[in-house]
Amino acid sequence: MNVPLLFTQIIANLWYLIPLFILIAVVKSAWFKGMIGEAIVNLSTKYLLDRSEYHLLKNVTLPLEEGTTQIDHIIVSRFGVFVIETKNMKGWIFGDARQKTWTQKI
Q: In this predicted structure, what is the pLDDT of residue 81?
């Protein structure tokens, strides 16, 4: 049996599975889930918050002594300043501003 010919015939008949597998890999990736999470926050703030009262800042980079840090969303209003950091994690996340590390409970 000619193995290269058999392999060529299989690829010719199932070529459409290759882009399907690539699409599935991209959709399941942490990068894509992070982009979707940030898009949901962007759309939610755009359509659910009054623009005259809430102002959205996206992808803010702040200098630190050790380098820099990046914040996904900051919402400024007369009610306060809200900092939103989107993450692709399961379960509950516990911590406060003074803790160096937070706890994840799955």
A: 96
Cα–Cα distance, 14 to 80 (Å, whole number): 56
> pTM of the entire structure?
0.64
- In this predicted structure, the answer to whether residue 75 has a pLDDT above a threshold of 90 is yes
Using CA atoms, how far apart are residues 92 and 68, in angstroms rounded to an integer? Answer: 26
DSSP conformation class of 71: E
**Does the residue 42 lie in any domain?**
yes
- What are the C-alpha distances in Å from 36 to residues 39, 87, 88? 5, 10, 10
CA separation for the pair 13, 2 (Å, rounded): 17
Give the structural domain span for 80: 3-95
In a domain, 26, yes or no: yes
